[in-house]
Amino acid sequence: MIEERFALGSSLLHRTDPSVKIIGATVLAIIIAISQSMAAILIGLGMGIALALLARLSPRALWPRFAAVNLFCLFLWVTLPLTGGGEAMGHIWSMAISRKGVMLALYVTIKTNAILLVLTALLATSPVHHIGRGMQRLGISTKLTLLLLTSYRYLNLIHQEFKRLQRAAELRCFDPRTNIHTYRTYSYLVGMTFVRSWERSRRVHNAMLMRGFNGTFPVLDTTTFRRRDLYFLLLFTASALVLAAVSLTW
Amino acid sequence: METTTDRHDVAIELRSISFTYPGHEHPVFDNLNFSFHGGHMGLIGDNGSGKTTLFHIMVGLLRPDSGQVLFNGKVMETEEDFTLLRRHVGMLFQNADDQLFSPSVVEDIAFGPLNLGHSPEEAREIAMTTLERVGLQGYEDRITHHLSGGEKRLVALATVLAMEPEILLLDEPTNDLDNAARGRLLEILGSLDQSLILISHDWDFLSRLTSTFYALEDGQLVRSNQVSIHQHQHVHPLGDRRHIHPPC
Question: What is the pLDDT along chain A (250 residues), one digit of tens a residue?
Fold first, then answer.
């Protein structure tokens, strides 16, 4: 289910305070996403690669992530050059290839990969519950934090519940095909999974009330902000300023 | 109906409780009266007879259609009343997975003490002592959903004990436990000085911890007679070999 492939490690980035990493990832990702300058997004890609190296991410584990996002980019490469409009840079058979479309696809592809690297290097290098704690410390909406933490905790169980139902169906010779019987069975399975999850959420909420839950998860973590975290915060701020400056001048 | 008075000065009283689940025709409780003044009490009844519902009404997770819940003589009405009551009454749920919602064991146990206003340092200290009480030293940084069924149950018990309740409500604590885990749970519960009400279908477990039994029948609580001596048959592994039954 949720494999936290990159969460364990001993690199500098793994040991950095999650709240600092959340700030860094958010700021860098937003600047890269809205920047219109090729120079800036290339620098962003460079920063992403540098962070990934710093976090010592295994290329083998990264590969499936690249494959997944670049599949979307591939669709853009198929459609945008044909639909981009404006000046044509050439023709394939009788179809005009739009320069604007190609450039747009190129931008999106570089941005996507740069952001993927930044997010993986910064956010995936902490276990989800540390990220939740970091969000809480930064004062991000309690509802969002609770949603993240409880989804993470229970997704696995909900998945198991679905698998149990699916196995029960298979034991009675259910053989999925393209027909109404299959669609109906799957909708029953999904429906039952929702019902059970909802019931479980009520039981969990009851258990939380029994222990004095008042709307927020209290934080047990008493680790304090270290000097190294401050350096990283400065580094991220500086990188963000460089990116912003480059985007505005080139 | 009164159970034996204990050294603890706590009491839960239910007065004329009626309760029907929305959309159901038959009431679960019809004008039920009950009072508990500490001690160890067993609660038995068929599936669906309302044992868990009774627990939920006692702690205000469900509100009765009519009737009152009293704690130490005071009528509990608002959510605030019940929030206070829940500091004194702890409940072990049927399914430990429902009860363990924090990522790590120590965080889960510390959740209650933190909510009670302890500082993080104190809460961690309480969590560590409680873990030791249930015999799970060294488990503090384990991930809760990776624990075995028996370990989950003991951690769930620790999360309740960490709040130092005076009354424990235990809802089928031996469900899905193997013999070793069941034995440990029995040992721990036997050593506690808290009052407890125990729902169980496990007669042996019940008779080792409690001497008073109530049965839920047709929406009423009926006091069951003391354990009587009678001849019985039972099965257990390797029963054809020479074996000794521990005294009850």
Answer: 566 778 877 888 888 888 999 999 999 999 999 998 999 999 999 999 999 999 998 888 899 999 999 999 999 999 988 887 778 888 888 888 888 899 999 999 999 999 999 999 999 998 888 888 888 888 888 888 888 888 888 887 888 888 888 888 888 888 888 889 899 989 999 999 999 888 988 999 999 999 988 877 777 776 677 888 888 899 989 999 998 898 888 7
Contact (CB<8Å) B102/A153 = yes
Which of A207, A212, A219 has its CB closest to that of B93? A207
Residues of B whose CB is below 8 A from A134: none
Chain B interface test: which of A1, A153, A211 (most B C-beta within 10 Å): A211
Distances (CA, A) of A163 to A66, A169, B36: 28, 10, 43
Q: Give the domain ranges of chain A.
A: 18-134+224-249, 140-210
A208 interface with B at CB cutoff 8 Å: yes
Q: At what angle do helices A59-83 and A99-122 cross, to 10 degrees?
A: 160
* Secondary element (H or E) of residue A198: helix A180-210
Assigned token pair, A79: 């459609």
Classify the C-alpha dihedral A120-A144-A150-A133 as positive or negative. positive
Cβ–Cβ < 8 Å for A20, A229 = yes
Under an 8 A CB cutoff, do B110 and A206 touch? no
Which residues of chain B fall short of a pLDDT of 70? 1-9, 225-248
Pick the CATH number of B12-224 from 3.40.50.300, 3.30.43.10, 3.40.50.720, 3.90.550.10: 3.40.50.300
Chain B neighbours among A 79-138 (CB < 8 Å)?
Answer: 127-129
- Note the pLDDT of residue B113: 92
C-alpha dist (Å) from residue A214 to A60, A111, B53, B82, B191:
44, 41, 23, 13, 32
Q: What is the pLDDT of residue B101?
A: 85
CB contact under 8 A, A210 and B59: yes
Q: Could you tell me the strand order of the sheet in which B66-71 lies?
A: B29-36, B12-19, B66-71, B74-76
Report the candidate in A146, A108, A107, A115 with the shortest Cα–Cα distance to residue A26: A115
CB contact under 8 A, B163 and A212: yes
Helices then strands, counting H and E runs in chain B, come out as: 8, 10
Domain ranges of chain B: 12-224
Chain B residue with Cα closest to A207: B99
Interface contact A219-B120, CB threshold 8 A: yes
